[in-house]
Give the backbone structure.
Amino acid sequence: DTGVSQDPRHKITKRGQNVTFRCDPISEHNRLYWYRQTLGQGPEFLTYFQNEAQLEKSRLLSDRFSAERPKGSFSTLEIQRTEQGDSAMYLCASSPKVTGLTEAFFGQGTRLTVV
Amino acid sequence: GNSVTQMEGPVTLSEEAFLTINCTYTATGYPSLFWYVQYPGEGLQLLLKATKADDKGSNKGFEATYRKETTSFHLEKGSVQVSDSAVYFCALSDPFGTSGSARQLTFGSGTQLTVLP
């Protein structure tokens, strides 16, 4: 296993379009997290899954955002009707249940640019 | 709520200089503390961690000690190298806090370090 994988690495989209990102966690990890990182800032928590259940959502996750993790494997993050303010790096992380956040591994991120 | 404040950058040092990046935190419970590093074009990597007061985390020559009395977790390295140039993030999780804080990392805004040869 080579770690947490995210696809695509870069996405440029026009304002108003929908985009979807994918995250493949480390295979034995049952916890999965999405974060957003804007330029010059630290990552901000968006949402958390344990297996297929979405257990936590930040108020940053407006109704234009939706995340899924079918069958507790890979996860997708969709942004509908993108706005310029959505331009950011979207990071995915995973961790095993036993160690939780003390052993979280991050992917390389998907950089979204809304023009 | 929980928060992390870290020293603003950018920080520019010569090779072999001593590094300190300050980090202080506010948490309602008993947090675990982390330093993450982000090299150019790459994702976040866990550099070191400490899960209870007075613990010292260390890795690759970097160290940080969990000081509950000063709510701090300062990052230090005795002799930096050009390859240490990166952005460093201090973060916490609060496993005994509210359910939300237990399931998320709270990050500082990051400190850009540039090491010159």
